[in-house]
Amino acid sequence: MYEVFNTEFRHCFAMPNSNTMTIKPIKEFTENWINFVTCKNNLPLGKAVIVDPFAKDCKLGTITNDLNTECDTDYHMRAEDFLDKLIDEGIEADVVIYDPPYSPRQISECYKAVGIQTTQQDTQASFYTKIKQRIREIVKVDGYVLSFGWNSMGVGKEGFRYEEIMLVTHGGAHNDTICVAQRRIPQLLSDMDSDDKLLEDEECQLTLSI
Ligand SMILES: C[S@@+](CC[C@H](N)C(=O)[O-])C[C@H]1O[C@@H](n2cnc3c(N)ncnc32)[C@H](O)[C@@H]1O
Predict the structure, then answer these.
(1) CA atoms of 185 and 143, how far apart (whole Å)
(2) Confidence of residue 205 (pLDDT cuts 50, 70, 90)
(3) Contact 70/115 with Cβ under 8 angstroms?
């Protein structure tokens, strides 16, 4: 038994960069979806609420966060706490940009850069699950989540529709970047998908490496 989605698919080539939004097709992918949501919701230009919990130096978000204090963002909190704060304040996002570290190794490197000791919890699947759960909560019905990483899971399929997947090949031995646009559909959200639940239950240690 499997599900088939009617998702738009694109494929392109671009040089890799750790500042994701400096990669031209990825920046365009993000800007196109932000413009689409702004037009669709009849919002004045620049008035969409765009939440970016892992912004680094990217300026596409209107509420930005990065753990690293050297990044020019509104907040420097753990993404989980940042999203909890916005949820408590009743913020609803038109778009969420979800561009976390792509592997446990990248998580450790980010934490080392800010002088935080990485715990086992930080490199478990639950790191992603906790953040995805909050993103699912904060995005409006008909709002969009734009996810970037090494898998196409986005924030899960329950309660969301895959609108576009763009595969960016970087060449050499680099992993591709998989860009996913998902729309929150008007349906009650379960906490998370069964796949994520499984990972969470097993407290599965991710074994991906760079
Ligand atoms: C893939 S990079 C983001 C790149 C950025 N979106 C861009 O376009 O340049 C991931 C970022 O997440 C930050 N980060 C890592 N762990 C975090 C956490 N738990 N909470 C918030 N930010 C975190 C890192 O400092 C890093 O800048």
Answers:
(1) 8
(2) very low
(3) no
Pocket test for ligand 1, best of 26, 27, 54, 57 (most atoms within 8 A of CB): 54
What mean pLDDT value characterizes the chain? 91
**Tell me, what's the pLDDT at 166?**
98
CA nearest to 127, candidates 21, 189, 53: 53
Domain 8-205 has CATH 3.90.550: no
**What whole-number percentage of the chain has pLDDT above 90?**
79
65 DSSP assignment: B
Atom number in ligand 1 closest to CA 148: 1
CA distance 19 to 106: 13
Q: Given the DSSP bridges, would you call strands 177-184 and 160-169 parallel, antiparallel or unpaired?
A: antiparallel
pLDDT at 46 over 90: no
Q: Ligand 1 centre from 111 Cα, in Å?
A: 10
Provide the pLDDT for residue 210: 38
Please state, in angstroms and rounded to a whole number, the distance separating the CA atoms of residues 203 and 123: 10
Mean pLDDT of 142-165: 96
Q: Indicate whether residue 48 lines ligand 1 (CB < 6 A).
A: no
